[in-house]
User: Fold this.
Amino acid sequence: MTDRYPEVYRLGWRRWLRPFLWVVFVPLFHALFRFVVTGRENIPKKPPYLVIYNHVSILDPPFLLAAWPYRLEAIAASYVFERPIQGQLVRLYGAIPVHKGRPDRAFLNFIVRVLKQGYPVALAPEGTRSHTPGMQRAWTGLAYLAEAAGVPIVPVGLVGTEDETLRRALRLQRPRVEVRIGRPFRLPPLDRWPLPRKQARRYNTDLAMYRIAALLPPAYRGVYDDPEGIRIAQALTPDLPMVPAAQTAGATSPC
Assistant:
């Protein structure tokens, strides 16, 4: 444990502030945007679980948090904490900082501890905003978290959150923003794949991202716009899965 990652229960008063932030921002979002949420019935009744979503702009995390009926543990890039207004908001919420651009095992192990304490966590596996709708290749830390914490994953597709959306909202055009919540699933154990562990994590990560892609229009899928990869990923279930029917002998990702 390091000072960068204090235990989640040390949030103190910030945890109690979250419902008040929700009460303020949800009506504001509905006033400025046509805010549509589908699939809330797919949210597991009990945590912990890992929520994964595509990341286009700074609008994605607040819309995801506003759409959820329970308070999620959120993750924000460390430099965001130093920005005016945005930094104050992530500090008030008690977001978990992550240093972008390099592997951070301390961060991953902290998230595992948070999940094992029973808290649901929201994560953008791409690691950065794309600024355009197309998804980018995800970091394999996602597969590590699923393996180490043993929790189900809930995929979420966000549509309409491009950079221009906020400017349109400020011009009172009420652009449409959708939060599409998919069915929860579990990734296959790494030893079920006839692959080295590093490649198996890559394969599992891409399977999870295809579950997000299945919720998005083709223009938003980017590197995950592959019908066969989506088909394989959709075979995963909330129960402990066997390896879906797929050609694994080539030791390649479905990407």
User: Anything to note?
Assistant: The chain has one domain: 10-233. The mean pLDDT is 86.
